[in-house]
Amino acid sequence: MADARYPMIRGRRRRRPFLSLPRPRRRFVMATSALFALVVVATFILLRPATPVAPEKALANARTAYGLGNYSAARNHALTALAGAPTSQPAMLLLARSYVQLGDGMAAEGALSRARTLRIPAETLAGLGAQARLLQGDLQGTLDAASAAPTDDGDAIRASARATAAQGDGAAATQALEGWLAMHPRDAAGWTDLGRIRLNAGDIAAATAAAAQAARLAPGDPIPLTLQAEIVRSRYGLTAALPWFEAALQRDAYYHPALIEYAATLGDAGRYTEMLAATRRAQAARPGSPQAFYLQAVLAARAGRGELARDLLQRAGPGIATLPGVALLGGGLDYAGGQYERAIDTWRQLADDQPMNVGLRRLLGAAMLRSGDAQGALDQLRPIAARDDADAYTLILVARAFEALGDRIAAATFLDRAAAGAHGAAAAFASDDSIGAAVAEAQDTPDDPNYLLGVIRAQATGGDLIGATARARALVAAAPGAPAAQLALGDVLAIAGRFADAAPAYTKAADLTFDEPTMLRLVDAWSRANRPSEAAAALSLYLQQNPQSLSGQRIRGHWQLLSGDADAAIETLESVRRIAGNRDAMLLADLASAYAAGGDSAIARRYGRAAYRLTPMNADICDAYAVALAADGDLAGARQLIAKAAALAPRDPIIAAHARRIGR
User: Fold this and answer.
1) pLDDT per residue as tens digits for the range 161-172
2) Burial class (CB in 10 A: 0-12, 13-18, 19+), 501
3) DSSP tally for the chain: helices H, then strands E
4) pTM of this prediction?
5) How far apart are CA 470 and CA 456, in angstroms?
6) How far apart are CA 300 and CA 298, in angstroms?
7) Helix or strand or coil: residue 234?
8) Average per-residue pLDDT in the chain?
9) Buried-most residue among 32, 49, 171, 622 (CB within 10 A)?
10) Is the pLDDT of residue 431 over 50?
11) Chain-centroid distance, C-alpha 86
12) Helix, strand or coil, per DSSP, at residue 541
């Protein structure tokens, strides 16, 4: 029996081995050894050749992924199958089809070239070849490839229809697809392409119906889901569209077209961190993606990093340089860098393509004036300056152009108008063409509603409101799903002063496309029809989906001020000012009034003074500055300004009330 040991009796101290370490160091060495062993094992696993996937299994996986709508996975599995069986015709065809579904025309063309070396019949590849050409923007090549395909090749028919629509014959394209779908009603891709053509043509109602049918036939497919998302974005706003994009990306997380549209929508909604993440995913899905570089350039420009934006735009390459957004951004970067001639070259073509784009013409005129072409600047800016609602910046540019040409009298006239600010309601549209010229153009192309819109504009501009109204109603009857037709009718009725009749037309347009121009028309019409609750409801609905809209927030802040909620008005208006800057005199005047009502008279005075410096001859500006001075205790200055405001607008009841209060 072993001797018992008692804890209170200390035994002989054991001698520590010569090589033993203290316990903390021993624990460190043991942990290090374990980590080293783990690294060795992991390295062995990583460096060990992966078990090859049988080509038959990879091809089966590719077909399964393709059927589920995960086209990125289908592409990857097809590549794996081809790595093991390079001559597999089914794998090569599936690879080419996957690239087509992913929207990568160049990669699809490469796969089809390899397919030809595998002796796949040319007629089998013709339809896919037409799709690949279409994705690369080669419209004539698309039609040529489609003509070589069998008559029942759906890929060829759909590609040919899309190319025909892109060449301007939307009616023929729609007819071709409708004929195909009459015989193949369960072709989801055909319904998707029909929806895309109708969306591009502006027939939102018909596009919605086609996209919904495609989604029913192919639930979860990212292609119709992306189209649905774009339509929802157009109809209901940014926030409403995001779940549709996310649904498409749940099926294929690296579906490049959805990632690009998703990123753009996030950016417009002000969610810039998520936007950047989406663009990086797009670049992972398609390295060197021009669209992703462009969106990152937009993000850099919004952050004030011009050089980075320029570098990113250059990396996007020339392939997307003709897109309107890219041209606008590129010209803006050139203008900011003092390269006015380059900005002019970029913007001139865009202005020719968009003659009714007032903002673009203003930018082009400013660049021409900076470059020394005063007459060119006048040619661009005078039509805008002739409007009663011309902004002060445009009027000042026109005045500077007249000064450069030596006409000081005209320059003084426009400077006086700039000092007074806009004095009329916003013009809906105008036309430089005569009614006869517009009618002649419409007769040459009777199926194109754009020319009918030109006739309506010319009639309204010429004062023939009865004829313009009749044509607008006829256009609405012919194209009830086109918001442009509803807007034309509403605009003619608004010009005639029939705002209560114009508002329902704008409401129908908003049901089809609730964008900012439609919202502004609708809110203005309800307000002028003395229906403030309907105007407020329209604005609230728009801001729910488009919280970053400066125009919407500007109206909201003004209404908050009028309702007496000074604190809310300050918060809203300051958020607008931080983005828009300090050049909007009416915005600064509203801020002056809001701070005066909120009890912060010193800030109110500063905002009032800044607004007055911009437009000293505007009655509303003088009134707001007077109220701010009175709140700050400067009654003498307030009385001088309120007297000036009353002289400029003797019938304004609000100014008259302020004059009575300040003059006591």
Assistant:
1) 999 999 999 999
2) middle
3) 37, 0
4) 0.83
5) 9
6) 5
7) helix
8) 88
9) 622
10) no
11) 43
12) helix
